[in-house]
Amino acid sequence: MANNVNRREFLATLAVAGGTVLVGGSTDAFASKNLSGWPDRFGMLVDLTECVGCRSCERACNEANALPQPAVPFDEKSVFDEKRRPTASAYTVVNRYENPASPGAPIYRKVQCNHCNEPSCASACPVRAYTKTPEGAVLYNKDVCFGCRYCMVACPFYAPAYDYESALEPRVVKCTFCHERVKKGGIPACAAACPVGTLTFGKRKDLIEVARRKIRKSPERYVDRIYGEIEAGGTSWLYLSGVPFESLDYPKDLPEKPIVENTKGFLSAVPLVLTMWPALLGMCYAANRNKEEKE
Amino acid sequence: MKRAIVLSIVSGCILALAPALAAGAGSGQKKLVLNRIAEEYAPVVFDHAMHEGQASGCNDCHHQHGTSAVQSCGDCHKIDAAAFKRSADVRKIRACRDCHPASVQPGDPGKPTLKAAYHRACFRCHKEIGSVGKDPKGCTETCHAAKAQAKRD
Amino acid sequence: MSNETLVKADNFSARFMDKLMMGMPRAEYARRLVTPFNAAAAIILAIGLPLIVLRFTNGLATITHSSNEYPWSILLGWGLFSGVPLSATGYVMATACYIFGYKKYHPLVRLGVLTGFMGYLFAVIYLLIDIGRPWRIYYPMAVSYGPTSVLFLVAWHVATYLTVQLLEFSPAILEWINARRTRKWAIMITIGMTIGGVILSTLHQSALGALFLMAPGKLHPLWYSPFIPVFFFISSIYAGFCMVIAVSTVVNRFLKDRTDQTFRETLDGLTVGLGKGACIGIFVYFVLRVIGVAHDDNWALLATPYGLWFLTELLAFVLVPGIVLTIAVKRNSARLVRLGAFWAIAGVVLTRLNVSIIAFNWNLAGHLHHIVPPAREVFVVLAIATMHILIFRWILNRMPVVAEHPDFADDPH
């Protein structure tokens, strides 16, 4: 009788522990690959020395995406008195910064999702609601999102906004890089609207060359850095500035590698635990049973 | 007698025309209508003659020299600027639209579009004058008529 | 159960009502319900439950100040990040008793498993309230997989582990409803469930910390470390021991009539034993946190305001309770162990709140203002915590958790 129970217990143990390994192993993480594909993906070069703060980009984005009318109209400059950020009804905003070198000529900075090469939001999302497209845009799929908001924790640029007001259809809101327009051969609405050519749309690799040429041609005009070239693994939106980027509230000290790399060590330990723990614990159990039987 | 009258009339005409010719030798253009790109706003009426008087030289706006596309002559040659100024053939100064495309060219994304070229040129001075850039309302106050407005006028 | 005046009724509904009202006639049961604690609970629920309804009819913004910079608040900071380590009671007790063979802790195993199961169940409830579309909570399991995400792992594990805990606790339920044969089957899978439970717990306890590996620039460097998954895992072990000590203390004080003699007589000795385990866990954890500071050479940061807060957490809420527990164990004083245990639990909650809320986005303007939750959110959390306690008490009052069922004394588990 005792032997029967032992055998049954043993088989049950194996079945359950093995089942855990199978279930766990087939669903837990495998490492993400580096983004080396799509060399012709698009980017946007933002020359902050040209921006005049007219907010035509905000207006164009609002119209192109049928966003609600803002409380303050687009030609109202008092909005610049406070620093704003993209919200559930504004994919992009422009902020004003005083330039200590030229007090009367402030600097304007456009803020929106940077469409990273290897987006943290996409890596963080447990339901794969984000996609990096061949055109370069990082798109959000509201049809699978269940609102955990981990993407908002993960984004180093604080880009995603969330519609907390909605009871039935809350969703993440962010710039789409006008993906539909771009796929049809057009350019994003903000770039089309900019009167001074602050925003230059083109292939990311070409824009890096354009930016480097600009810095070389006018070293007194630009800080020698293309923000977005390598930050967090590189972003589609690239920035040139006449003043250090930290003074314009750009996140500093971002690692050069995609942030998801930080989790690869942990996630790769998962199958190791799933394999070793049953054996280790099984041995402890067996050793204890052996000791008990001897007593 | 008849020959004298004809001669005086002709010379009189020439004399009358001379200032006009001389003026034409400057640029020949007084007011330009910029209508190559007119999507959101009505065509802009640009007083070329007035701005010509305000500028210190053609190069203030027509930056044919030292552009990113053209290597500056001084990179290789010793230049006497005064010599160039006297000998400038204004008929060769090209219009903005001759170099700047209406929409961004994929092959040369670094070249500003025509809209960007206009505004960058204008904003060099108009950032202070007319508050354009400082106050977005300045767009319609200073230069542009909104299309809806233009239709009404 | 010990003092039931069970009248064997013929029909199912009468037996069902007997089980629900613990064998008491209706009037007597109703009278028993009127207590000061129940009155306070009723008030809290009267405020909190309508707020929860409001959340579902009018959106999250009605009960929380979560924003675009601060997507997570105390609903998750308490319910998930604090609740889960405090629910480690199940796996630590089952492992200690069944795998490592510490049979003497048997009286506390079911209590640990129940505490753990309830903790995870309520973590899911907090999640259902916090996530934007709760009706889609099963999506990571069945609709769309995001395996690069640590949160994907957490989702799968919480779901699986909840099942494991329920199965581990099922013998108690089956004894309550007298399902002898099913109970036999449930007992057979205990070892497998226990091993599965440890595996899952190792991974998801550490995964909750690994979540923050995606936010290196946002979490204060004294709390951010590549070792954060290890910190979370080790602290969950001693949190489990301390929670068993704490819960058994409360049960022994307020629900003594549900305990059996074995439980009452051995409790103090077991408490000191658990205190030993907690001691080891706490000191290992303390050293690991110091290694974390050394690894990134963050010593200079200890002199900043957040550095002082970090030292408060590490010294006053990890080292000191560790010392208290050591002294208590040496003196064999169950009372002092309990003090140390409650203190250590406060430290675990503090560190979880620090990582998920207080030290998160520490460098944003107006940070300290942003992290204070609105009163509505506090009441929602209180209401859910009250429900948690009420349901826990309901189960303890009826099922054989801290006492052995007399009908099954011949086949104990």
Structure characterization notes:
The complex is a heterotrimer of chains A (295), B (153) and C (413). Chain A has one domain: 2-Layer Sandwich (Alpha-Beta Plaits). In chain A, 35% of the residues lie in helices and 12% in strands. Chain A is built from 8 helices and 9 strands. Chain A has helices at 2-27, 56-64, 120-124, 150-154, 179-183, 189-193, 204-217, 261-294, and strands at 42-47, 93-97, 107-111, 130-132, 138-140, 161-162, 172-173, 199-203, 237-240. Chain A starts with a helix and ends with a helix. Chain B has a two-stranded antiparallel ribbon. Chain B has helices at residues 2-26, 48-54, 81-87, 96-99, 114-126, 138-143, 147-152, and strands spanning 31-34, 44-47. Chain C has a single domain (15-404), classed as Formate dehydrogenase/DMSO reductase fold (Up-down Bundle). Chain C has 17 helices and no strands. In chain C, helix 6 (89-99) packs across helix 12 (228-254). The longest helix of chain C is centred in the C-terminal third of the chain and has 35 residues, at 261-295. The radius of gyration of chain C is 22 Å and the shape is globular. The chains are: A alpha+beta (295), B mainly alpha (153), C mainly alpha (413). The interface between A and B is medium-sized, with 29 and 23 residues.
Domain module tally of chain A: 1
Most extensive interface, chain pair and sizes: A-C, 75 and 66 residues
Mean pLDDT metric of chain B: 70
Main beta sheet of chain A:
3 strands, mixed
Q: How is this structure best summarized?
A:
Chain A contains 8 helices and 9 strands. Chain A is α+β, with helices and mostly antiparallel strands and 295 residues long. Chain B is extended, with a radius of gyration of 21 Å.
